[in-house]
């Protein structure tokens, strides 16, 4: 996946951390996970009841061959691997090719230069799986445009990756009409024919139910941490600083460490951290909470939302935010690594990549993520991400035999860390795509060209782990951060579901992110935001509330 370098936006953050909320649109609601049957605000065709979901979900069976992690999971956190596992210690989950020599087309996003057809890596993967893949990779930055055109046509590839941030317009409807129901092959104990798929966490499968059926092959996501509050630990330690644990103290601290004359500012835009500090609800469809009287309240209507924006505005007003961030220009990561900005928030993928980039340029460089704190003496709130935010779907016109063979591809790519299959998928062929030097892998130029531009991981992957043997300190810091924060994790309403909002209400939220940025920079006021929320209600927000209330009412009726 790409790393986001420009000034952050909601789309970039969700994309870079692979847990985009299902911001969908269309006619009838497509509800997955603990949905109900019945009317539901205009009908719930394609919805799955709680009982049906239990029947749909694959049986979970932990891998018997994966190597135990160096840092075990705790309370749902991701496990960590700090060392490079020697070849002789790797488990084997697919002892021999299980494909039947079939040929498949696959469409996935790709960031970078596509590898040449017939390259050594793709050939090795084909031979290990027992199939032949013909890749139709598309530029990840414009993937949605191509995806919509392909799904509207008649020539749909056998396997199609759809990231959550592309679930808009008619794409959810296309998923139900164009792609196969995998339930007959994977639901219940049927999945045990594909052991690596059986080891995928249940939460990832819950998020893979579309139109009342199991259709997606998931890329599981981390439970929390899509947006991380990074700080320059090396600079903080050199100055004896500690990050405050109170919003007001944080602003005062930022004033203290900012020195514009020395071109040092405390932070970049911290809006995303503010949302967690103040416990703001996440994006749709998980952006509702029940009030004391049972009425649904949207994130835009909460005091927490306004308080988070006001706190961020105070940071700008105090002139502790880097001027380029004020102008929403330039590269925030560059400013951070140059020491011009000492704190910033960015997707979790930035941690390892930035540390690797700086290892040679600045050996003393060290970044870490500080612990979120709450406001008003409260704890922070980290809303649990859906179990998956990227899926691959199988063309419904494939025969049963070819669907099973395509699932063998997914079973191979979903091999867990510490297996021979995962090593091949992630690094390629030893001696060709990488070498092992001083106990660590080193990619060859051929590996950089053929393996680094990822394709196979988009088909399906194992449960999320933090495995970075080249910088084990990042593994320790990241997993430790996650363990400390799991106690603050909450599941929001509509967690794990794919909800298709009515088409007429699809775009009513579109102006809020730009207005947020204007408010925190002082170009608009909190009153302007309140007026925008009132207008949002009149223009469909109240109707949208009724729509979601119908989903909850149906769930209650189904459970009674």
Topology (SSEs and partners):
Elements: H1 10-16, E1 24-26, H2 50-56, E2 80-81, E3 103-107, E4 109-110, H3 120-129, E5 132-135, E6 138-139, H4 143-152, E7 159-163, H5 171-178, H6 183-186, H7 195-198, H8 202-206, E8 209-210, E9 213-214, E10 217-220, E11 227-232, H9 233-239, H10 247-257, H11 271-277, E12 288-290, E13 296-298, H12 303-317, H13 323-326, H14 332-337, E14 343-347, H15 349-361, E15 367-369, E16 382-383, E17 388-394, H16 400-413, H17 420-427, E18 434-437, E19 440-443, H18 445-450, E20 466-467, H19 472-485, E21 489-490, E22 500-502, H20 512-520, H21 526-559
Parallel strand pairs: 1-22, 2-20, 3-5, 3-7, 4-6, 16-21
Antiparallel strand pairs: 7-17, 8-9, 10-17, 11-14, 11-15, 12-13, 18-19
Helix pairs in contact: 11-12, 20-21
Describe this structure as you would to a colleague:
- This protein is α/β, with parallel strands linked by helices.
- It has two domains: 313 residues, Periplasmic binding protein-like II (D-Maltodextrin-Binding Protein, domain 2); 208 residues, Periplasmic binding protein-like II (D-Maltodextrin-Binding Protein, domain 2, 3-Layer(aba) Sandwich).
- It is 36% helix and 13% strand.
- The protein is built from 21 helices and 22 strands.
- A hairpin with a 2-residue loop joins strand 8 and strand 9.
- The longest helix has 34 residues.
- The protein starts with 9 loop residues before the first helix and ends with a helix.
């Amino acid at each position: 996946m790409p790393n986001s370098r420009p000034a952050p936006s909601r789309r970039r953050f969700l994309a870079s951390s692979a847990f985009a909320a299902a911001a969908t649109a269309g006619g009838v609601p497509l509800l997955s996970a603990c949905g109900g049957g019945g009317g539901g605000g205009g009908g719930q065709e394609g919805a799955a009841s709680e009982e049906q979901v239990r029947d749909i979900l694959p049986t979970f069976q932990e891998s018997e061959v994966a190597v135990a992690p160096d840092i075990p999971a705790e309370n749902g956190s991701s496990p960590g691997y700090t060392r490079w596992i020697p070849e002789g210690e790797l488990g084997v989950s697919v002892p021999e090719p299980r494909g039947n020599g079939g040929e498949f087309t696959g469409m996935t996003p790709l960031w970078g230069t596509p590898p040449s057809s017939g390259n050594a890596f793709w050939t090795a993967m084909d031979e290990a799986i027992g199939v032949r893949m013909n890749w139709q990779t598309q530029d990840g930055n414009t993937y949605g445009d191509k995806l919509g055109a392909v799904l509207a046509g008649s020539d749909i590839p056998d396997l199609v990756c759809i990231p959550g941030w592309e679930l808009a317009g008619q794409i959810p409807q296309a998923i139900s009409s164009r792609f196969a129901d995998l339930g007959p092959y994977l639901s219940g104990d049927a999945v045990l024919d594909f052991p690596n798929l059986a080891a995928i966490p249940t939460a990832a499968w819950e998020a893979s139910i579309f139109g009342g059926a199991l259709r997606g092959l998931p890329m599981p996501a981390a439970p929390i941490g899509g947006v991380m509050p990074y700080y320059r630990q090396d600079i903080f330690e050199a100055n004896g600083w500690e990050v405050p644990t109170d919003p007001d103290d944080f602003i005062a601290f930022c004033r203290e460490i900012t020195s514009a004359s020395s071109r040092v500012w405390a932070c970049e835009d911290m809006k995303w951290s503010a949302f967690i500090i103040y416990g703001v609800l996440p994006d749709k469809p998980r952006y509702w909470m029940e009030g004391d009287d049972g009425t649904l309240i949207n994130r835009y209507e909460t005091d927490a939302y306004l308080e988070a924006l006001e706190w961020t505005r105070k940071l700008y007003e105090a002139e502790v935010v880097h001027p380029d961030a004020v102008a929403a220009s330039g590269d925030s990561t560059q400013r951070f690594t140059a020491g011009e900005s000492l704190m910033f928030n960015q997707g979790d993928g930035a941690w390892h990549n930035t540390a690797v980039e700086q290892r040679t340029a600045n050996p003393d460089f060290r970044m870490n993520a500080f612990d979120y704190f709450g406001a008003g003496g409260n704890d922070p709130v980290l809303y649990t991400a859906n179990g998956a935010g990227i899926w691959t779907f199988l063309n419904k016109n494939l025969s049963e035999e070819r669907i099973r063979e395509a699932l063998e591809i997914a079973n191979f790519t979903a091999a867990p860390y510490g297996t021979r299959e995962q090593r091949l998928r992630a690094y390629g062929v030893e001696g060709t795509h990488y070498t092992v030097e001083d106990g660590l892998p080193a990619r060859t130029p051929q590996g950089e060209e053929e393996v680094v531009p990822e394709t196979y991981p988009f088909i399906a992957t194992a449960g999320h782990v933090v495995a970075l043997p080249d910088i084990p300190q990042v593994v320790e810091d990241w997993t430790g951060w996650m363990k400390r924060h799991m106690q603050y994790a909450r599941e929001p309403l509509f967690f794990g579901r794919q909800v298709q909002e009515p088409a007429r209400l699809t775009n009513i939220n579109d102006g809020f992110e730009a207005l947020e940025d204007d408010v925190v920079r002082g170009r608009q006021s909190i009153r302007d935001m309140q007026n925008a929320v009132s207008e949002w209600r009149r223009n469909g927000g109240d109707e949208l509330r009724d729509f979601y209330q119908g989903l909850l009412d149906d769930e209650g009726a189904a459970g009674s």
